[in-house]
Amino acid sequence: MHGIALALAAGFTVAYLARRWRFPAIPFYIVIGIVLGVTGFNVIHESETAAYLAHMGLLFLLFTMGLHLRPRDVLARKGSFVRAGAVDLLVNFAIGLGAAFLLGLPVYEAVVIAAAFFISSSAMALSSLIDNRKLGFRESETVVWLMVFEDIVLVVFIMFLAVTQESPVRVITATLVFIALCYGLVHLLKDPIGRLLAREDEIPLLFVVTAVLLSAYLSTLAGVPDSLTVIALGSALSLVSQDAPAAIARPFREVFMVLFFVFFGVSVHFAGALSPVLLLGLGALALLSKLCSGILIGRLVHKSSLSGVEIWSDTAARGEFSIALAAIYGSAMVSSTVAALVVITAFAGGFTGMHSARIRGRLRAMTRKRDGKEVR
Amino acid sequence: MDFHHLSLPGIGTKYELETDDGDIISVVYMQNGKVQMYTCSGARTGCSSAELTAMEARRLGNVLTGAIIEAEQEGVEIAFSALADLRISVHTYIIGKSLSGKSIGEMDIRSKTGVTVLAVSREGENTVNPRPSFIFEAGDAVVVIGEADQIKRFEKDILG
Q1: Fewest CB atoms within 10 Å of the CB: A40, A154, A331, B82?
Q2: pLDDT of residue B43
Q3: Given a cut of 90, is residue B61 above it in pLDDT?
Q4: Is this model's pTM higher than 0.90 or not?
């Protein structure tokens, strides 16, 4: 237990300091895990209890993500949502896949790296919009819905990575049956569930926690990835209420995700990993790939490259979902690569998010000077 | 004037108003209960922002609605068209340490000043029409109603 207490104490300290500096805490969690784990001072070790709690954090994170995938809202989005998301996917996934193949990785591991390239950190993107007061900007809506699109694609990635390990037909069928059951049950019991979640005693809390853990348990019985079933559960429950389940899941997610990140850092082995120069290069490439997709999306949706730079500034950071995929499906080499990718892009993304106005101002001035006219 | 709202998954709901002059005012109700407000000039020379608590947002809303109420510090004065001589003031105050632990009945507020305590807000919980046995705590927000001179007496004799 001392490892968990130490991890939480270190997590609390960096979270406090990060809040004070208005900087994302996720890269710090991973760094303290690396520093205190086998790669560093070797004072925190992996344990079954820590792994279970970290997994709980992941389940609650994915459940919350599912709550944001309300079918009605997603279906109501029109053209630009899909077009922007497709550009984001094609550019970043292709660049990530190309880089992984150049490094000589097999297809399965290359897909995990490419997914890490593509999926931005929703937590850091949304925090950047709120903390840096950007919600009034027209680009903020594009950023938020890009995160929703990435979440939907994440479901596809999880399914793809799962079917390569087991029988595709069985996994896909079981997953679809589970999703249909979730939606069917919630639809049938909409009113009782609504009344249950509106209660002011401990019942809503027990209901949500039980539902998450029960769906994870049932998925292991059915041989379906529990990451998928909790997303489906969240999305189905969003038909009744988004706020109440989200408020209940939040404390579990916040505390256990700290353990998830710290113990991911603890588990990272740099023996046999890529050289620091290659890791830095990969991190720089990941930043550039999001810049390319950001500019294309900016021109596509807002008819402005500078809007694209603004979108990039909030989406450059990779985080929780890249780490989650690496933790579930990555080898030791992939995990160390993704850890480095997340730390580099999250630190850089923290700065771009905070200083995007300055970056845009500089770019505008440079372009004016070069062209003798103003860019849109 | 164009007014619309949109859902921002993971953040909350954004309401956006474009004025006739082309200025844009955005109000974002966030899931953490806070409200962010942005005003962007039509000339696009930049945006200003402010983050408000739910109570601050409501106060601002009261000021913006204007109409029949005249804002004065933490209160409003209401005039009714059918009762020309009647002007009623509704005021809010924050209870200080000196009144903490005292009940409404013990202070004999209505007999001494003429004002009525309409409601008390304590850590987000509201008590409407509190009984005389209701005991104040420091930090309580109270809403009182009365005529202007009664309100002044309440400020002088009760709040001190």
Answers
A1: B82
A2: 62
A3: no
A4: no
Q: Is the pLDDT of residue B73 over 60?
A: no
- Report angle CA A160, A161, A162 to the nearest 5 degrees: 90
Structural tokens at position A343 = 């730390």
Length of chain A: 376
Residue A15 has pLDDT above 80, yes or no: yes
Instruction: Map tokens 């998928």 to a residue.
Output: A228
Substitution target in A122, A133, A358 with the highest count of B β-carbons within 10 Å is A133
Q: Which residue from B8, B39, B47 is facing A141, i.e. has the nearest CB? A: B8
Quick check: B51 and A243 CB within 8 A? no
Question: What confidence tens digit (pLDDT) does each residue in A115-165 have?
Answer: 999 999 888 898 888 888 888 888 898 999 999 899 889 888 888 877 766
| Whether B49 contacts chain A with CB within 8 A | yes
Place of tokens 């594009």: A142
Distances (CA, A) of B2 to A4, A189, A268, B16, B25: 53, 39, 53, 8, 11
Residues in A 57-96 with any Cβ partner in B closer than 8 A: 68-70, 73
Overall size of chain B counted in residues: 160
Question: Which three-class secondary structure state does DSSP give residue B51?
Answer: strand
pLDDT tens figures, A244-271: 898 899 899 889 989 988 988 888 777 6
pLDDT at A336 over 90: no
Do residues B147 and B89 make contact, with C-beta atoms less than 8 angstroms apart? yes
Say if A303 is an interface residue toward chain B (CB within 8 Å): no
Beta strands in B9-159 (DSSP E): 12-18, 24-30, 35-40, 47-52, 69-72, 75-80, 83-94, 116-122, 125-128, 141-146
- Complete edge-to-edge strand list for the sheet that includes strand B116-122: B69-72, B75-80, B83-94, B141-146, B116-122, B125-128
Q: CB-based burial of residue A156 (10 Å sphere; 0-12 exposed, 13-18 middle, 19+ buried)?
A: exposed
CA distance B91 to A315: 47
Residue A6: name the closest of A37, A44, A39 by CA. A44
Q: Give residues with Cβ within 8 angstroms of A233, minimum separation 6.
A: A63, A66, A182, A211, A212, A215
* B6, B31, B47 member nearest A136 (Cβ): B47
User: Mean pLDDT across the stretch A42-60?
Assistant: 87
Complete DSSP assignment for A6-66: HHHHHHHHHHHHHHHHT--SHHHHHHHHHHHSTTTT--S---HHHHHHHHHHHHHHHHHHH
Instruction: Please identify which residue in the block is written with the tokens 């256990």.
Output: A256
Assembly ipTM: 0.72
Cα B54–Cα B57–Cα B63 angle in degrees, nearest 5: 145
B43 token code pair: 């000339």
Which pair of tokens denotes residue B95? 């209870």
d(CA A212, CA B78): 52
SS3 label, residue A364? helix
Q: What is the mean pLDDT of residues A315-344?
A: 86
Alpha helices in A68-202 (DSSP H): 71-76, 79-102, 107-118, 122-131, 138-163, 168-188, 190-198
- Mean pLDDT for A78-104 is 91
CB contact (8 A) between residue B36 and residue A137: no
